[in-house]
């Protein structure tokens, strides 16, 4: 089963969901702002995706953080604590498929990933 994690009003998540629908790919959507996310899942993602890619350091949520929180996010435990507290700092979308994890949406990469 493919699971797409994100926030429904995020433009990139909207594009990813539309792409999956347009290509007839069944998936489950998990809104991590409403449904939450747990530390175990975040650790699993971080085992496959570098923290620099998993933590969105470009958004308004990140920019509003105090410097000590930003610095703490350089470590795994600091980043997990931050993502649990503020899921908006998770780079979107996160895609899980066949025991793998990917972050972000790039149409060409997804087409290759799904053999299209």
Automatic annotation (TrEMBL):
Pfam families tied to this protein: ArsC
Species annotation: Chromobacterium alticapitis
PANTHER family per the UniProt record, alphabetical: ARSENATE REDUCTASE (PTHR30041), PROTEIN YFFB (PTHR30041:SF8)
Family that this chain belongs to: Belongs to the ArsC family.
Matching NCBIfam families: arsC_related
InterPro entries: Arsenate_reductase-like, Thioredoxin-like_sf, Tscrpt_reg_Spx/MgsR
Stated name of the protein: Arsenate reductase
């Amino acid at each position: 089963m493919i699971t797409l994690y994100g926030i429904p009003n995020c433009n990139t998540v909207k594009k990813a969901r539309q792409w999956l629908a347009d290509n007839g790919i069944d998936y489950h959507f998990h809104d991590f702002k409403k449904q939450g996310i747990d530390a175990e899942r975040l650790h699993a993602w971080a085992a496959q995706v570098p923290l620099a890619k998993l933590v969105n350091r470009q958004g308004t949520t990140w920019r509003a953080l105090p410097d000590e929180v930003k610095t703490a996010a350089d470590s795994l435990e600091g980043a997990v604590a931050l993502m649990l507290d503020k899921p908006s700092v998770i780079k979107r979308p996160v895609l899980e498929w066949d025991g793998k994890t990917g972050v972000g949406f790039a149409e060409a990469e997804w087409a290759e990933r799904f053999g299209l």
